[in-house]
Amino acid sequence: MKAILVGFMGSGKTTVGNLLAKKLKTPYHDLDDVIVEMAGKSIQQIFEESGEMAFRQLEHEALIQSLDQEGVLGTGGGTPIQDMNFELLQNTKVPVILLDVLPETIMERLRDDTGRPLAQELGLTGLVTLKSERDERYEQVSDFRIATDDLKPTEVVEAISRKLFVNQ
Ligand SMILES: Nc1ncnc2c1ncn2[C@@H]1O[C@H](COP(=O)(O)OP(=O)(O)OP(=O)(O)O)[C@@H](O)[C@H]1O
Ligand SMILES: O=C(O)C1=C[C@@H](O)[C@@H](O)[C@H](O)C1
Ligand SMILES: [Mg+2]
């Protein structure tokens, strides 16, 4: 991998990851898609039929597989929270980038989205709580953080490129 993106739901991992991969002329891998392909089921189906533990096990296997691939990897919103993934992400030599976002921005970005029932279910207060529980982990696995609230996806890619270039 050339870069790994972490961050909360709606932080822009998929959008920015695709653009960054295009710029770096390398494939984009979305961990959630890898899991769906491995399981032959949607994420919602995995949660409903097998439970979150089973999903997290698949997610871990998908992460191990993906770390050996060439390209940019967008992780799932909960990936760094599991201890076994946390260690993998902390120990990788690949730059890990935190895309950060305020809960208010998440609500705004996902307002018309029906594919993320969790965001609708939690509402603003629930998102604030869950995000604050996860923030430390996101920070600890990442090499640098980009606040994306006031940036367009292309501007986030530019900010990442500047950091990657400077750090090379
Ligand atoms: N910097 C940005 N500015 C404005 N809108 C954005 C930005 N980044 C992403 N979006 C929009 O926010 C929504 C969520 O983005 P995206 O799907 O990339 O997030 P994600 O981090 O992959 O979420 P998830 O963890 O749920 O997969 C999309 O509609 C996308 O177009
Ligand atoms: O924040 C989370 O725990 C999740 C985020 C999504 O990317 C998916 O990986 C799944 O819905 C769980
Ligand atoms: Mg995504």
Automatic annotation (TrEMBL):
Lineage start: Bacteria, Bacillati, Bacillota, Bacilli, Lactobacillales
Residues reported to bind ATP: 10-15, 116
Encoding gene per record: aroI
Signal sequence range: none
Entry GO CC: cytosol
The enzyme's E.C. designation: 2.7.1.71
Substrates-to-products reaction catalysed: shikimate + ATP = 3-phosphoshikimate + ADP + H(+)
Needed cofactors: Mg(2+)
Species annotation: Lentilactobacillus rapi
Family the UniProt entry places it in: Belongs to the shikimate kinase family.
Protein name per UniProt: Shikimate kinase
Intracellular or extracellular location(s): Cytoplasm
Cofactor: binding details: Binds 1 Mg(2+) ion per subunit.
